[in-house]
Amino acid sequence: MINIAILGYGTIGSGVVEVLGLNGDSISKKCGHEINIKYILDLKDFPGTPIENKIVHDFNVIANDPEIKIVVEVMGGVEPAYSFVKEAILRGKSVCTSNKELVAKHGAELLALSKEQKVNFLFEASVGGGIPIIRPLNQSLTADEIEEITGILNGTTNYILSKMTDEGADFDATLKEAQAKGYAERHPEADVEGYDACRKIAILSSLAFGMQVDFEDIYTEGISKITQTDIKYAKAMGARIKLLGTSKREGNHVYAMVTPMMIFQNHPLYSVNDVFNGIFVRGNVIGDVMFYGSGAGKLPTASAVVADVVDAAKHLGTNIMTIWSSKKLELSSITHAKHKFFVRIADSDAKVKDKVKEIFGDVEEVVAEGVENEYAFITQPIDEDTFAKNSSKIDHIVSKIRVRV
Amino acid sequence: MINIAILGYGTIGSGVVEVLGLNGDSISKKCGHEINIKYILDLKDFPGTPIENKIVHDFNVIANDPEIKIVVEVMGGVEPAYSFVKEAILRGKSVCTSNKELVAKHGAELLALSKEQKVNFLFEASVGGGIPIIRPLNQSLTADEIEEITGILNGTTNYILSKMTDEGADFDATLKEAQAKGYAERHPEADVEGYDACRKIAILSSLAFGMQVDFEDIYTEGISKITQTDIKYAKAMGARIKLLGTSKREGNHVYAMVTPMMIFQNHPLYSVNDVFNGIFVRGNVIGDVMFYGSGAGKLPTASAVVADVVDAAKHLGTNIMTIWSSKKLELSSITHAKHKFFVRIADSDAKVKDKVKEIFGDVEEVVAEGVENEYAFITQPIDEDTFAKNSSKIDHIVSKIRVRV
Fold this sequence. Notes:
Chain A is α/β, with parallel strands linked by helices. Chain A folds into three domains: 2-129 and 298-327, 3-Layer(aba) Sandwich (Rossmann fold), CATH 3.40.50; 136-294, 2-Layer Sandwich (Dihydrodipicolinate Reductase, domain 2), CATH 3.30.360; 334-403, 2-Layer Sandwich (Alpha-Beta Plaits), CATH 3.30.70.1710.
């Protein structure tokens, strides 16, 4: 029997309890040990519930109990999660977490520490909810040099963009509907401004390239400026607008960004809609692979946490994760990242077309039914810097959206 | 340094050599050891090539060399692969294979033997080419009870069906084109009749349900009877026809089958086209996940083989695979499997509609542009047995294709 403690009895924490209850027999069999929840750390008491007797309010009870071999951290946020996790590792306990803020901020340090302590720090649930992506990156794609990771990493924004596409509503109305259905939070900035996706692509990039990628360095744009008119143009082109977190290696440089992008049907992420997440990986020998599934939700996320618990239980005393170095990977500026750009100008005069042609060279005009008094086009593939310089010479640009080549 | 031997210098074998050459440095780093190819077993000599000095013709040279810790079996076919692999395991060597015939036929035995010998028998490349699916099933989805696995597991048939859909040609012409491009073999039966997909779904089912699923027990239909008219109807419904290998648990029963099926846009496998493979897994807590990528090809398959070599090298002396029991899983007959059925009758007389209604109850008529003198419909969800009984009462049925509900 292996004793574990759960830090936080919120959505994910109660999901972990539920999954271990529901599938306990088969989990014990695969694990080779019965998993017993000895403590649950929470501020509240939950009287009258089956977990009442497991509740503790003081982390030291857990830290000081040598019977606890694995700590499940599902509190979220950097503190006190970081202090608790560090203490647990120093006390020789493995840690499984769903906490993307913690992993993005302190992943390299906690991985190195857990290696020293011969325990494991596992975080499958921190990216892509239930979708297996951390373990495949760490253990399956080992024959490859990763050239690119691009993901639809946030279910809330993907839901909003899908609804805007399917139902023709604008951003604000769709956000409200998503909030009413519980798909978006009351304070939705972390999702809609791309901060959540940014932390996740930072974690994936650190793992893929083996060095610390600081999320603060990643250029991040959200979806709050996307309008129904943009969506109409996308449809007219057979494209969809998705919030993509991407990091790419080009020669010795890696750049990373989170932005809305137009993608076409030939890309596997095109079909990842609603609250689903998809993570596309390009390796230099495997080619293109994609991992698809529920990027959030109580049970899918708990499934990933419990799978980590099983792995930790099977590897007590042996560190199994590839670490990423705490040496910082200096991302190159996105100024040299090349895409096409979709641009709308609030000016339909014939002269504007001439001016665009003069500045951008050959462009492809885009016409959307029912949109008038503007001129929209797609550039040739150009870098960010050139685009910025050129577009500064044009007045009345209403919006620009990157287009995946 | 870890010495390995490769059995077979064909497409995959030469791919393994290429991948280890191309990414050797990063592979050594992830692995913690340099991987050295000491021998390559082949009937031919390859004079004047860089591997000339590694070639041996006698497997005993490899079996008798205690320096060889890992054997890569990429010969294909059951014999002599089976004898060589068994001997290697008995001599304390781990084996990594891409050989689906071998794994489907002898997987349970070789897994049990490798557990006894404290070595590993790994076969990521035997299903889905480069796509990580065996390791995720074995190590990531451990918190779940698997309810269903459904896959587009054969790139050749997916290419043919995609081309028939996109280009409007019939089966024979498309097969010829696929053969000319090297996407189909000269003797294409293993692919087009579903035998290849059958072995792969047998392997996945054995792993998912933990018991030996014999491929001979799996109901298998290929795609050679699919016509352009069927495709036209599918398009009219917004569906695509895919060759799906599926196994499902319903209560205590598991059934498995390989058949062409119509699927709709709301299913993630709908967007898996051309030579790509997709493997959809439904777990009781993770919900739906899908793994997508190149299901074949020299480098993607070699990528999966080399990833297994890295895993074997990191785990010398420790068995890491969950075994599936050699106890046979008695598949339940598909007679109780429920789907909708798409049916075409070569009779457009009004009376036939009445008869269909009398026998099948409410059905949905399907009309495809340019198809005349027939009546086509989709049934309500009914089981295979009921369908067979009912359809035997109707004359002139031209084709029936299952429809995923």
